[in-house]
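User: Let's play a game. I give you a shape written as tokens, and you guess the letters that built it. Ready? Here's round one.
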């Protein structure tokens, strides 16, 4: 038998010839290819290319279609004349259909249009080398086939004997039967005195049949080094050795063309007859045939197992699977299909593959199915049936709807937060100037009353922007470890007076609630908003229930919002017995300015503020409601891993209002009107002010003025650096510098504070003059200690 020819291309270096008259491009491309492991020879012209090809031994050539005054297509033709095995890839920025055809006719394998991506180039080169490998393997296979044919011609004289023996082997129905038939054939035709057949099972050769002397029932697989079978496996043909009495011992491995061992034959020649070379060749032929029979038998067994696995797969598939004939009559269906579609196959026309969404009422509620129909073809590509696969996509559809709703709310939140931020700056100017005017008209009661009304209206505007910022998650929070049970118990006393006697309040607070980290004031405001909404939903009185419990959310829980992180939460719910909501109202309930109340009875910001506060706190909000059955709003807050201390803000509301002592303050504010207002306030408090509009100019002012005692900066600044980054840079330049931060919309930036900035006071715009005075005085005094 002919030995397999090794793959000559298996370790062949990937050698390239790159031909381009643009030296910079050629050198850059060559460097890139070398980094990818290619051996690259570069030629910058027509004549140089032929020389470099021979020296480099390139397998693939990258050739520019224009090489100065010469033609790259002609170069490809010349390279093919010199080396017909060379694969050429044209590179051009001016390719046309005619040029492409001419290049391919000249022998080009492919072409690339400049400019091209590195991935496109590497994929093309991979195809070239793969094509070359396949071409060489084909040549090797043809060579092997020719060698096999020569051997078969030499054995033609013995075909009659082989075919007669092969008939018995062909009738075998299993691998074991084929091996046993081969053993009996060899004992008879070769005149063996005894023999044994071993079948490979798992990692051992197990004795299946013995004729004459007993053999070991089990042999290791592969056999031990130095044994007769090990020698036969190495040679991949029968091996023989002589016994002391002069008889021949035969070792015959049953190995297929891929080198897999299926079994083995061991035997001894009789004293009257030794084994000849022709005997061994006959044994090899019969063994090869037996191996094919064994492979076929194993393939049939594998097919049976595969069909059984397929049946089990279809049976246990999470999708419903069915096969119908062209009239729509069901030929095959798994149990899930029968359960989902008891009325039969949904639709019978499937000339082409189609997809359809079907909604239907099923036990447990309304379900949504994605149904795929496709034609089932025979070997002649004729449609012989219709395949149907149905998948329950109800949960997926619900998750997509939740995602779309979250995206809508995110967009609305960004717009709302931006508007609130700008409005806050306007209110800061109005509020600050009104406070300055208020100081000037203390002796004019008539004007003082007008200013007071304007201040009250401005404070209402500030509260409105606070709700907008809460929805947009842009409101700066002051979170601290909080006992939900204690807060709810204390707050319920206020609610009893707020809601009136017509509404009964019930508390259901689980013992040993986990501690959460939230802004207590914002949580109280959220509870108040939810309670007022509940009161308005129960005009004739009713029942309000506030409950809190520990929950652990699982990522795989059905119906759970995929955006919610799994973990430990405290669930705080407010439930009423009011009129409830329709599904349409429930989907829009958290949108800002949406309300079902009469005109003037509500701003439509209460529930949206609660939603924004919970999301900003790392939690999650769920609403459950049906018309006539009340509403339940549940707030999920992440639990702290362990008890922690109360967060200190660094502010104290003591009186009287502290003033400055001539210290210099660096004020950084990008809005000119707000900057002018704060400068006036600081001047009245007794401070000297240095102004800056952004971080860069602020650092320049800090370098010029050595007596700056404190930095008062807005967090949101133009120019690339925000107030947090400015404060860090200022502290690095002036350790101990007092820091006070202001913001109207910078909650995301606050989360990154660390070190001294972690406890720096943060004042929300518009800033009360008294609060500004206390914070600034405390920051300066703290920096001097």
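Assistant: Ready! My guess for every position:
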């Amino acid at each position: 038998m002919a030995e397999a020819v090794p793959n000559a291309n298996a370790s062949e270096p990937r050698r390239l010839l790159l031909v381009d008259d643009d030296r910079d491009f050629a050198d850059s491309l060559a460097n890139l290819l070398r980094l990818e492991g290619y051996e690259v020879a570069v030629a910058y012209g027509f004549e140089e290319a032929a020389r470099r090809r021979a020296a480099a031994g390139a397998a693939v050539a990258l050739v520019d279609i224009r090489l100065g005054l010469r033609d790259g297509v002609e170069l490809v033709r010349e390279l093919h004349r010199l080396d017909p095995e060379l694969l050429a890839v044209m590179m051009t920025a001016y390719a046309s259909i005619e040029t492409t055809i001419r290049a391919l006719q000249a022998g080009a394998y492919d072409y690339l249009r400049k400019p091209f991506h590195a991935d496109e180039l590497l994929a093309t080169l991979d195809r070239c080398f793969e094509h070359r490998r396949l071409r060489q393997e084909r040549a090797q296979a043809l060579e092997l086939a020719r060698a096999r044919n020569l051997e078969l011609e030499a054995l033609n004289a013995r075909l009659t004997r082989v075919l007669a023996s092969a008939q018995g082997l062909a009738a075998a129905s299993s691998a074991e039967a084929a091996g046993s038939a081969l053993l009996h054939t060899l004992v008879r035709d070769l005149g063996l005195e005894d023999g044994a057949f071993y079948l490979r099972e798992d990692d051992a050769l197990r004795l299946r049949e013995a004729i004459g002397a007993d053999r070991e029932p089990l042999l290791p697989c592969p056999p031990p080094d130095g044994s007769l079978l090990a020698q036969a496996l190495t040679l991949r043909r029968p091996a023989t050795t002589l016994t002391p009495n002069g008889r021949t011992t035969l070792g015959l491995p049953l190995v297929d063309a891929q080198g897999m061992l299926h079994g083995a034959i061991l035997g001894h020649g009789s004293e009257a007859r030794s084994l000849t070379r022709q005997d061994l060749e006959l044994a090899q032929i019969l063994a090869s045939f037996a191996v094919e029979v064994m492979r076929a038998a194993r393939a049939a067994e594998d097919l049976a197992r595969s069909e059984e696995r397929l049946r089990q797969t279809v049976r246990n598939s999470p999708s419903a699977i069915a096969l119908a004939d062209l009239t729509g009559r069901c030929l095959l269906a798994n149990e899930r299909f029968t359960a989902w579609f008891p009325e039969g196959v949904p639709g019978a026309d499937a000339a082409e593959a189609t997809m359809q969404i079907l909604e239907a009422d099923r036990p447990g509620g309304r379900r949504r199915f994605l149904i795929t129909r496709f034609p089932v073809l025979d070997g002649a590509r004729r449609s012989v049936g219709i395949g149907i696969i149905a998948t329950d996509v109800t949960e997926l559809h619900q998750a997509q709807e939740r995602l779309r709703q979250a995206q809508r709310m995110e967009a609305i939140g960004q717009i709302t937060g931006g508007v609130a931020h700008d409005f806050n700056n306007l209110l800061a100017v109005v509020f600050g100037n009104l406070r300055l005017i208020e100081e000037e008209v203390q002796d004019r009661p008539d004007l003082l009353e007008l200013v007071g009304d304007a201040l009250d209206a401005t404070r209402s505007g500030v509260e409105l922007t606070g709700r907008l910022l809460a929805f947009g998650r842009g409101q700066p929070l002051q979170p601290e470890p909080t006992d939900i049970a204690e807060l709810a118990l204390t707050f319920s006393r206020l609610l009893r007076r707020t809601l009136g006697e017509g509404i009964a309040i019930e508390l259901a607070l689980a013992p040993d609630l986990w501690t959460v980290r939230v802004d207590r004031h914002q949580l109280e405001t959220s509870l108040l908003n939810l309670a007022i909404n509940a009161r308005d939903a129960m005009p004739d009185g009713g029942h309000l229930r506030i409950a809190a419990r520990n929950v652990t959310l699982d990522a795989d829980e059905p119906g759970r919002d995929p955006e919610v992180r799994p973990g430990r939460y405290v669930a705080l719910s407010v439930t009423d017995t009011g009129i409830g909501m329709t599904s349409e109202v429930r989907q829009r309930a958290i949108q800002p300015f949406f309300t079902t109340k009469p005109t003037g009875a509500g701003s439509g910001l209460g529930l949206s503020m609660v939603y924004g506060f919970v999301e900003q706190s790392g939690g999650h909000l769920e609403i459950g409601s049906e018309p006539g059955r009340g509403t339940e709003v549940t707030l999920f807050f992440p639990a702290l891993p362990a008890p922690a201390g109360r967060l200190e803000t660094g502010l104290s509301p003591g009186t009287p209002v502290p003033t400055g002592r001539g210290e210099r303050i660096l004020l950084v504010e990008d809005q000119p009107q707000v900057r002018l207002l704060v400068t006036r306030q600081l001047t009245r408090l007794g401070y000297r002010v240095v102004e800056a509009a952004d971080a860069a100019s602020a650092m320049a002012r800090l370098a010029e003025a050595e007596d700056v005692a404190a930095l008062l900066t807005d967090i949101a600044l133009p120019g690339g650096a925000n107030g947090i980054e400015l404060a860090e840079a200022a502290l690095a330049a002036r350790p101990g510098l007092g820091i006070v931060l202001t913001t109207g919309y910078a909650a995301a930036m606050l989360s990154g504070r660390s070190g001294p900035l972690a406890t720096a006071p943060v004042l929300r715009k518009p800033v009360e003059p008294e609060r500004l005075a206390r914070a600034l005085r405390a920051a300066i005094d703290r920096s001097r200690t």
